[in-house]
Amino acid sequence: MLKKAFTSGIVIGLIISLISILLYFIDYTLLASMTMGLIMIVLMIALPIIAAVRIKKEQESFNLKEAFLTVFLICVGSILVSTAVNFIMYGLYDPGFGERLAEAAVENQEAMMTRFGLSGEEMDKALEETYNRTKEQYEPGSMLLGVLIGSLISAVFSIIVALIIRKKEQTNNVLDA
């Protein structure tokens, strides 16, 4: 069961990575769009849940510990694969990608802030923070930190999902009066 969970995580990581790679080659600025970010978040939440429910259906028992480990291994597997692919793509294949993506993110955020009527020093500060944060995401140290933070978030996510999808044990306790 745990091997199947980790394998499912690897597959999910490959799916997420394939989407990112396709977007990179189609139009890398899509990776900086809020819409695409939301779609990726939905996928990163939904796919592990779907995989865990499929694994649950194959099990006679699926207690809280098994459910937690299943979801957690799926999440960690997908994080490891997608981080490895990101490192290869954006650390080795295209080391300048972080800077270009940061520029695209700044353009998107500037357009959004302008629509909301913001301008001046606050907007400049926010745009500079966006640029720096986005650019740093694609540095090796930040990617490793992302794995650690993603794993911690995955642990919390996993316990919540496990509480929902576990199979509750049937007890036939009869109280003697």
Can you tell me about this structure?
It is a single chain. With 177 residues, the protein is mainly alpha-helical. The chain has one domain. It contains six helices and no strands. α2 packs antiparallel against α3, α3 (64-93) packs antiparallel against α6 (140-165) and α4 (97-115) runs antiparallel to α5 (121-137). The longest helix is centred in the middle third of the chain and has 30 residues, at 64-93.
Strand content: under 5%
Termini separation (Å)?
Answer: 42 Å
Shape: elongated
Main sheet attributes: strand count, strand direction, barrel closure: none
Pick out the low-confidence regions: none
Q: What count of helical segments does DSSP give? A: 6
Helix content: over 70%
Global structural class: mainly alpha
Q: What order do the helices and strands follow? A: HHHHHH
Number of structural domains? 1
Instruction: Compute the CA-based radius of gyration.
Output: 20 Å
| Record field, number of beta strands | 0
Q: What is the mean predicted local confidence, pLDDT?
A: 87
Characteristics:
single chain; 177 residues; mainly alpha; 6 helices
Produce a short descriptive summary:
With 177 residues, this protein is mainly alpha-helical.
